[in-house]
Amino acid sequence: xxxxxxxxxxxxxxxxxxxxxxxxxQRSVHLMRxxxxxxxxxxxxxxxxxxRCAICxxxxxxxxxxxxxxxxxxDGQPKAPEPKLTVDHCHTTGRVRGLLCQRCNHGLGQFADxxxxxxxxxxxxxxx
Length: 128
Description:
Low-confidence stretches: none
Structural class: mainly alpha
Order of helices and strands: HHHEEHH
Radius of gyration: 17 Å
Strand content: 5-15%
Distance between the termini: 35 Å
Helix content: 40-55%
Largest sheet: 2 strands, antiparallel
Number of helices: 5
Strand order of the largest sheet: 1-2
Number of domains: 2
Mean pLDDT: 82
Number of strands: 2
CATH architecture of the largest domain: 3-Layer(aba) Sandwich
Oligomer: single chain
CATH topology of the largest domain: His-Me finger endonuclease fold
Shape: globular
C-alpha cells in the first residue's frame, strides 16, 4: 500500500500528465515509472507468453475487457483501452515476473504473494 504523501504526489503527477500526454504516452510513462519496462518490453513479454496469462493460460482474446476506471479525460481524447494482461511484479524486489489476467493478478494479491499460503490453499482444494 502506498503512503498518503506518495499517493497524493502520484495523483497530482497523473493529473498533470493527462493534460499534456496522449493515452499511449501515458501508458509508456506508467510502465517505465511503475515497473521499469518499456512498451516494447511489455509487448515482448506478451509475445513470449503467446498472449496468454502466465497462470491460467487464458488467451487475451478470451479475457473480458476490464471495466473502465476513473473519470472521462478532460481534454476530450478517448481513453486508451486497458490491456487485458497486466504486469505482475514482486513488491519486495520490484522485479517483473510476467503478465497476468486481472483475475489471477488479484488472486495473488489476495494471498499477499505468499507461497506458503498459496500452498495451503492448493492442499485445501485437493481435499475434495
